[in-house]
Amino acid sequence: xxxxxxxxxxxxxxxxxxxxxxxxxxxxxxxxxxxxxxxxxxxxxxxxxxxxxxxxxxxxxxxxxxxxxxxxxxxxxxxxxxxxxxxxxxxxxxxxxxxxxxxxxxxxxxxxxxxxxxxxxxxxxxxxxxxxxxxxxxxxxxxxxxxxxxxxxxxxxxxxxxxxxxxxxxxxxxxxxxxxxxxxxxxxxxxxxxxxxxxxxxxxxxxxxxxxxxxxxxxxxxxxxxxxxxxxxxxxxxxxxxxxxxxxxxxxxxxxxxxxxxxxxxxxxxxxxxxxxxxxxxxxxxxxxxxxxxxxxxxxxxxxxxxxxxxxxxxxxxxxxxxxxxxxxxxxxxxxxxxxxxxxxxxxxxxxxxxxxxxxxxxxxxxxxxxxxxxxxxxxxxxxxxxxxxxxxxxxxxxxxxxxxxxxxxxxxxxxxxxxxxxxxxxxxxxxxxxxx
Length: 437
Fold this sequence. Notes:
Blueprint: H1 2-37, H2 41-77, H3 86-91, H4 93-100, H5 102-122, H6 125-132, H7 149-182, E1 186-189, E2 192-195, H8 197-224, H9 238-264, H10 271-300, H11 304-322, H12 341-346, H13 348-352, H14 359-369, E3 376-378, E4 382-388, E5 391-402, H15 412-418, E6 425-429
Antiparallel strand pairs: 1-2, 3-5, 4-5, 5-6
Helix pairs in contact: 1-2, 2-5, 2-6, 2-7, 5-7, 6-7, 7-8, 8-9, 8-10, 9-10
């Protein structure tokens, strides 16, 4: 009987695992067949190995940092009993559970979070591959003088590493706080919250690390301004260069000073240093946040064209370089020449293709006479040019697209097998009308 139970348990485990991973196995097999049919299975294996490797690396790193720190704090306090009042245990059952299983939680929580972190970071495999295979563009940005490849290949990895470190620090800080709470290194006394010297020393080190993360964030944020898409002008602007970047540089310096002051608390523990450092950084942040706005309001807006022209030129030059148009020649056409019959004859093809129809009215017309069924719809009109009967003609094209939400009977067969795509395309001359208009 015991043997049957054992095999039933194994069978249930296999079925359960299969139900979870079956769709992923099927998806992988389909992908493998497609890549194999094109003779590029090496690409698929590169993606999978990169995902597995990067996810494993970040997961292990996260676990080592979090568990290493938390286990060290727990061992230093393991000789002390967990002090949690009976009232708290009754009123907050979750705290009672955590206090009773604190040693196990110190291991399990980092392990579970490490697995989740690894799974999330595995989806960022392109970032690490781009970093490892980075190559120079041969062009530098006009503000910081860095090669353009930095913004595509290097900066994304730095930002990803920063987010991972933030997650690690938050988990460590919460874990340390709970351990010290259960061990009565932190408690509420008659005069308020009491933090014992050993806890103050640990929190000083953690605060210093947090301030270093703030400094790295402010430093990297300056580079992110170069590709910001807010406002009329894409990219960096006058207020950014003369307002935001100086403020971010100041915040970086203040954060580094705050980190040094906090680390000094490792020698002489005290929460006052951390509080003053945090307050100073917050003050600079909030005051500095208004400076670029004042600059925009009182310096840029009264003379916007003059102030923003250099940055518009940078944006245009960057776009031309990106599309390989930086070597084109520009010519001014006055448009003052008179039109003659000879000019019309020489440009007959152009004259015959002057567009009369506007897209929006044509879209309405097509909807009235060409949709045919309620589940078809014309959603956009585009220009194209073709050779028709030996003549070069400009036309207006609009695909008759399927709107599955308008199907009269939305069954699985109709949506996935019968009605799977639109039906044809409408092609209209740009300069002709029917007797009805």
